[in-house]
Specification:
Elements lengths: L2 E5 L3 H9 L5 E6 L2 H9 L3 E4 L6 H6 L2 E4 L9 H12 L6 E7 L10 E2 L10 H14 L6 E6 L1 E3 L6 H6 L4 E3 L7 E3 H13 L6 E4 L7 H12 L6 E3 L7 H6 L5 E2 L2 H5 L10 H11 L4
Parallel strand pairs: 1-2, 1-4, 2-3, 4-5, 5-7, 6-13, 7-11, 8-10, 9-12
């Protein structure tokens, strides 16, 4: 039986699990009993981690997905299970590591692709570069690295804030972000599982890098609500975390997922993605 062991079974991993055929077994790690029950309700076998022995799950796994983010001490999965994973490398058909386009750093609005130099500008980006290298260093692992742009989808988008009147259109001249709908993340991961290419690195983003204020404005227009006024980045009150997202501006190329995996994006731009979210159901 094909078995996916998903470390840190969160938003993107849940979307992938919904695409896998019924004859797959999916084991997902979570930190709490409450979340474990929620996973079980979706047909995923929950495993509490940290806190339980995952050896039986690793023995059964044919595929691994790592969504868990690095922490101050490095990659938590490798910290706990590197030896066990390395010992089973020749039994694994596919390993996917979810990273971030933050590894490329700031490019002043210029383009990057998977062969671009890694120049992370933030602490989070640097941690991801180190984690990618640590995973590549595990011998014999059929590793695939996926560098994700900003994720949106059901429950993650601008509509709730626009409706509540709390959305802000913060403008930093020249600032552009790439983004990706969770449904497209799932289809890329599934395509890679179907056509494994160990060592491959893929950027996951749509075709339309855009200023964040344009996305907010379009969401308001779709809802028939007033477009929030522009706020100058330098004068806007923001948390350090929020401000750090504006430290990098780049456009990310996604040709490889199309050329190598045959992916046709479900939502090639934010307009398509937002329209689909609105037609599906209102965000909570």
């Amino acid at each position: 039986m094909k078995t996916l062991l998903s470390f840190g079974h969160g938003y993107s991993a849940r979307a992938l699990a919904r695409l896998l055929p019924d004859d797959w077994r999916v084991i997902g790690t979570t930190r709490s009993d409450d979340k474990a029950e929620a996973l079980r309700a979706t047909g995923v076998e929950p495993a509490i981690w940290p806190g339980s022995d995952l050896t039986p799950a690793l023995d059964a796994a044919t595929h691994l997905l790592i969504s868990a983010a690095p922490d101050a001490d490095g990659d938590p999965v490798l910290r706990d299970w590197q030896g066990a994973i390395a010992a089973r490398a020749n039994r694994l058909a596919w390993v996917g590591y979810l990273s971030t386009t933050g590894v490329y750093g700031d490019r002043d609005g210029g383009w990057v692709d998977e062969d671009s130099e890694l120049r992370p500008a933030t602490k989070r980006g640097k941690a991801r570069v180190e984690a990618e290298a640590a995973w590549r260093a595990v011998p014999g692992l059929p590793l695939h690295i996926f560098r994700l742009a900003g994720i949106y989808g059901p429950g993650r988008g601008p509509f709730a804030k626009v409706r509540a009147g709390t959305a802000r259109r913060i403008v930093k001249p020249g600032q552009v972000f790439s983004r990706i709908h969770v449904d497209d993340i799932a289809q890329v991961l599934k395509a890679s599982i179907d056509r494994p290419n160990p060592g491959a690195i893929y950027n996951l983003c749509d075709d339309d890098p855009a200023p964040p204020q344009d996305v907010i404005a379009h969401a308001a227009e779709l809802l028939g609500l007033p477009v929030p006024p522009e706020l100058d980045f330098e004068k806007a009150e923001m948390t350090p975390m929020a401000r750090s997202f504006y430290a990098e501006s780049k456009k990310v190329r996604n040709d490889r997922i199309k050329d190598e995996l045959g992916v046709r994006l479900i939502h090639p731009d934010y307009r398509s993605g937002l329209a689909a979210l609105l037609s599906r159901k209102p965000e909570k």
